[in-house]
Amino acid sequence: MGQASPVPVEETPALFTGRRWFIPSALLHELDPDTARAGRRPRRTARDWVVDFSCFLLAVVVGAIAIEALEENPHVPRELAVVDQVIGALACAAVWLRRRWPLGLAVAMTPVSFVSDTSGGAGLIALFTLAVHRSFRYVAWVGGANMAMVPLYYWLRPDVDVPYVVSVPFAMLLTVAIVGWGMFVRAKRQLMLSLRDRARRAETEARLRAEQAQRLAREAIAREMHDVLAHRLTLLSVHAGALEFRPDAPPAETARAAGVIRESAHEALQDLREIIGVLRAGEPDDTGRPQPTLAGLDTLVAESREAGMKVSLDHRVGDSAAVPASVGRTAYRITQEGLTNARKHAPGTEVTVCVTGAPGDGLTVSVRNPPPEGEVPPVPGSGQGLIGLTERATLAGGRLEHGPTPEGGFEVRAWLPWP
Predict the structure, then answer these.
(1) Can you name the residues that pair with 410 across neighbouring β-strands?
(2) Sign of the CA dihedral 269, 274, 275, 280?
(3) Does any domain span residue 248?
């Protein structure tokens, strides 16, 4: 038996950390999955050496007591007593093999204990080891064979000091006690292994939950990045395109477009800095910028109008502050994405934004645009904006529908709960 491989900290419960030399090698073998998979046998631990030496010493003591009883028994010839002692010595030496071959040793010790008085202690130790290391079906067969031979043993070799009716029940009771003790030790070890498995499963589930939470957080950040930066960068694209195709524009319009580009670039960089700050591990978000709410729709529409869009806002919610923050933020992002898409795919059209609702009835947000005039140049995009909006509305407890209108335009319509 070679020295056991170190038990990985992540695979071994904290109860065993730093105490491996005081744990049975069989239990360490189960706790070390690498050793178990490789089929290697662990060396005895310090505890194993102490236990094995104690078992050997106990077998020798019992054998010595049996030698004294043999010498006082007039029914046992001298030559038979010598043979008995030789067999008993070999049986005591075989105790050191109990961990390697528990079943074979217990089976071999059954007839040996029947013919040799001095090997009785070794036979009981072998039966105890079998109960610890093997299942009950093996223990039942071997233990049953030992108990079946007890009456015949004391019939052929009666004790000179103890009556037959006392010796047989006592020997049977001792056998049952040894088997019960071994099964108790085995059950305790199996309980420790089951607790180890539960701890490992709990750690795995916790890691999976953490990974899932991290993935959901990253998806939420990705949606936020798309909603925020798409709007800002679309404004940049529109005004930069105007400056490119109208180099002879009046200085006032050029200055206004340049101002919008500068402001949009500044806002986009600030939003990007916030999102990157969230992604960095251990960096707190101390920007303190408030999240958008339904009250920010007027500002959003004003920015779009400054970019040259025709936007009509029909805001029928009397008190925007009464709308829950999460609902208002979702409505803001839906409107923002709808205006961004209209600016990309239907430039020059008049976009109608309608917001209605009341507590108990929910909040309805609609962004509609007519079909564009003429051919619209293709605009690069990820195609994930509407998918993200649908998921956002679903997570908020509402629903979102989008698609072409009968007139050939496009509409994004969402309903959000407002308790």
Answers:
(1) 369, 404
(2) positive
(3) no
Copy the structure tokens of residue 189.
């070890």
**Domain containing residue 353:** 294-419
User: β-pairing, 410-416 with 362-369?
Assistant: antiparallel
- Side chain identity at residue 125, one-letter code: I
| Phi, psi for residue 304 in degrees, rounded to 5 | -65, -40
User: Residue 348: which CATH number?
Assistant: 3.30.565.10
- The amino acid sitting at 403 is G
Which is nearest to 268 in space by CA: 301, 222, 230?
Answer: 230
Taking the C-alpha atoms of 97, 101, 104 and 106 in order, what is their torsion angle to the nearest 10 degrees?
A: 60
Reported pTM: 0.43
- The residues near 58 (Cβ < 8 Å, ≥ 6 apart) are 121, 125
HSE, CB side, 13 Å, CA atoms: give it for residue 312. Answer: 9
According to the model, what pLDDT value does residue 258 have? 75
187/184 Cα distance (integer angstroms): 5
Looking at the fold, whether 72 and 186 belong to one and the same domain comes out as yes
Task: Please indicate, yes or no, if residue 148 is contained in any of the structural domains.
Answer: yes
| Residue in this structure with the two tokens 């395109």, named with its chain if needed | 241
CB environment 323-345: b (16+ within 10 A), e (fewer) = bbeebbbbbbbbbbbbbbbbbbe
Contact residues for 56 (Cβ-Cβ < 8 A; gap 6+): 92, 95, 96
Count of domains forming the chain: 2
Least Cα distance to 411 among 356, 370, 363, 364 occurs for: 370
Distance CA 124, CA 146 (A): 10
Question: Is 178 inside any structural domain?
Answer: yes
- Nearest-angstrom CA–CA distance, 228 and 130: 70
What the block records as the tokens of 180 is 């019960």
Predicted confidence (pLDDT) per residue in 303-358, tens digit: 888 877 888 888 888 777 888 887 888 888 888 888 888 888 888 888 999 999 88
Query: Alpha carbon 124 to chain centroid distance?
Result: 45
Tokens describing residue 66: 């049996």
